[in-house]
Amino acid sequence: MPVELKDIALLGGVSVAHAWQLGKFARRVGAARGKFKVKYPAISGNEEFERYYRAQMNSLEFFPIFSTSLWMSGLFFHQVPAAIAGVVYIYARNRYFNGYIVSVEDRLPGFKLGVRCIMAMFGMFLLGAGHLAVETFAGINIREQYLQQYLKF
Question: What subcellular compartments does it reside in (predicted)?
Answer without folding.
Answer: Endoplasmic reticulum membrane
